[in-house]
Known about the structure:
single chain, alpha+beta, Alkaline Phosphatase, subunit A, Gyrase A, domain 2, eight-stranded mixed β-sheet, 16 helices
Amino acid sequence: MKRAALTNKLLVLGVDGMDPRISRKFLAEGKMPNLQKFIDRGSAREDLMLLGAIPTITPPCWTTLATGAYPGTHGITCYWRQSPESLDAVVYNLDSRNCTAEQIWNITSEAGMKTLVWHWPGSSWPPTSHSENLSVVDGTQPGSVNMGVAQLDWEKVIIATPEIKEVRYAPRVDKPAGVGCIITDLEDTLDAEVDDEMMELWWGDTAREGGEIRTYVMDDEDTEVVIGSKVAYDIVNSPLKDAAGWANAPEGAKEFTILTSGGVMRRPALILKNEAGEYDRVAIYKNKKAEAPIVILERDKMVTGIIDDVTKKEVTKPACRSMKILELDPAGNKVRLWISNALDISNDQLWHQKSLYKDVVGNVGEVPPVSLIGGEDAELVREIFEPSWEIYCKWQADSMNYLIKEKGYTAVFSHLHNIDCAGHQLWHLGKTLPNWDHTDEKTYQGFIEKFYTQTDDYLGEFLYLLDEGWTVLVVSDHGLIVGENVPPIIGEYGGLNTKVMEELGYTVMKKDENGNSIREVDWEKTRAVQIRSNYIYINLKGRDKYGIVDPKDKYDLEEQLISDLYNYRDERTGKRVIGICLRNKDAVLIGANGPECGDIFFSVEEGYNRLHGDSISTSEGYFETSVSPIFVAAGAGIKSGFTTERTIRQVDVAPSVSALLGLRYPAQCEGAPIYQIFSEDI
């Protein structure tokens, strides 16, 4: 289809988890002035909503945005695919080779546009076009660039006082809010090697190579509401004493010891006095003989780009860290310090072309690590979690702008994960749930606001492009609900959900000697299982390894199961918890059908949802939150100050990009251009 282009430069600013409903709340309060400028100079619906694909999960929705196809068509139906070997296991799915639909960036690059795909967690990696015009950065996980492959060491808090008598190291301490950092029992800490193995399994080479992931969600302790609240980091305790044996220790300095790399790497550190005689700085050295420190930290300032050696699995490499003083007694009797995870600065594994990594690092700076700790500890959220994302957002904006200005990219598809990452840590703490009084909801609603204003600053970094002939689309994959009730144990995306299916008699778990369920399915008695957020599989003879249900009984069993799910009531409120329930053949109505979906698709009813994933995209929650994605368009080819009444769907974004650029539509596209917002008829 030949047609004139309405623009020749286009930027998609994707923000994972950005909710139009909560955005409108902060817009009305004047807290998102840059987003307001995009709206004033562009087009959107009054409610800013984009009708999201189903399931409302990161990889399916970003793939839908990229292809214009529904998940049932493109085949990316969750973070994971069902294991071909077992109904209780899944395999890695953030892999473009599993996508059965064409991505829009292949069309732009093959049409001669210099195209950048930046950290898009939906069928972007590995690159699926050989065009020399296509550059791709990461896309193997939704966190931050390089997080999945370059981590060498975990985050840690170091505390030093004169009362501590020896240096002690505790890996991955699962610490409730309000509990101090003094180590009293090393036996209560997790095994660092085991924890590293779990990280590797979920995000590392094992997962990417197709290894099975098998987890069970059996009670509240296994759910994201609880897991996301935990604060797990390494803790180091050290004596704090007068400096001795240093080549160049300032007068009055006091020393303590930092342990990194699983406790095998030692770094001596000093607290230093200012001219008024108060301790206000921390200097960290490679050793006591070093003339200059690795870094000097000042109060209230997070420092990134700190390069130091890190050892992992007996291999030592230079890595980038961020650090910040959490507490420093002016009298010199206590210091508490945060050190970020460490990113291998030589790792260009997920950069195509490889030269792109060296170019960005050389001209913008090393990839800054983001914090993943916070949970119920409001101090860590305020002092560490949010500021680390602020640094990362600025680095990402600077990197993209450098590539646009200096390297001539004219089609850019980008993704930022700050809101979603914060949401999975914090959003459920924005309301005091039944039996959950660990945090103050106003404090956590303030954190929600902070991440939205942080995002507004990020969007503002690209406003200038509107004056340079660019078209800019602001989109998201889904919003994030602040839940109103404790969700039932069905619909959790992180594993096999057993409790409700056990209660209904479809899933049977093996029992211990006391009659308690253990984490192993009794396949001889199990007729169906629920896994991957929205999918239920019948344990079918001839198809499944341990199948017991005769294929001729499948239809009747599905009917019974659907009826039982609709009749299931929450034990706390007595209300229905299942929203919609459809056989695979009927789920074509919502684009959630096909071989990569279960025998039954279901959603959790509004009010009982998790953050996202288990619900449909129109669900709403507490504190004016929703699961809906956002859509705003501005710039060349877009009407200025225009409000459309059209229902805009995620499948409409890719064909709209094609229409704006005068290019063909993706081959499997099921959406249509949002022609109502275009400045000219096409």
